[in-house]
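Bench log. Compound arrived from synthesis this morning; before running ITC I wanted a structural hypothesis for how biotin sits in the protein. Inputs:
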Amino acid sequence: MSLTKAHIESHLRTRALGRALTVLPVADSTNRLAMAAAKDGAPHGTVIVADTQTDGHGQKGRSFFSPAGCGLYVSILWRSPSSSLLPLMTSCTAVAAARAIESVAPVSVQIKWVNDLIIDGRKIAGILTQGEFDPTTGQPAFAVIGIGINVHRVDFPDELKPIAGTVQDACGVAVDRGELLAALLNELETALSEAENRAFLTESRRRSCVIGRPVRVTDSSGTYTADAVDLDENGQLIIERDGARHTLIAGDVQVR
Ligand code: BTN
């Protein structure tokens, strides 16, 4: 089944997410389009999804491989997140996306802090949350949550072959992308609405593939080894290095 508006809407149970829905055959980056739409006054819950991206953005200026017909490349506009919700959004989205994938495919999804979803040791999805603050109030004006999921089997470029995978590789099922998108929006609306009670963090910890493991951390101070210990109340990673505990707010973590 192709990625069509009517098909996605037929599976949608949300109040706001996806009720303004744009389905594109091609976008440069759905995050870029959603950021522009947000500045143009698009409503809360606006969703932009594309069959392929020519300039998909990943974390830290990396690109996100977005071939046609194989993946889900989607951006969701969340207006006026409170300043307490903002730091939780990426971790909470990771949990919602893991639940959505498991609802349509017989797989177990893990989370590699903070924005990667992993099946059988391979990255099958990434999350990029962007946003803007209102310059007059200093409060968050909006967030755009971008999610890329490798759904159907694909020939990855050489540099991704050792690390990337697809949902189909993991379970043999060619999941319907429209159904998966609707499941994602259904899960995400509930999860973000309840995120501030922090109950989802228990599931984040359970799904984590780094907690309790020795890791290699790359952050603004360089690359070093540590042990991943826990998540704090904002979903930040607590690491132990040379006997002292630190909280990582941003950075890249690889299991050693
Ligand atoms: C990462 O793994 O570093 C984050 C990847 C985020 C990719 C998604 S695909 C939809 C949305 N549009 C983009 O340009 N990026 C995000």
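What the model suggests: The chain is about 25% helix and 30% strand. The mean pLDDT is 97.
ITC booked for Thursday regardless.
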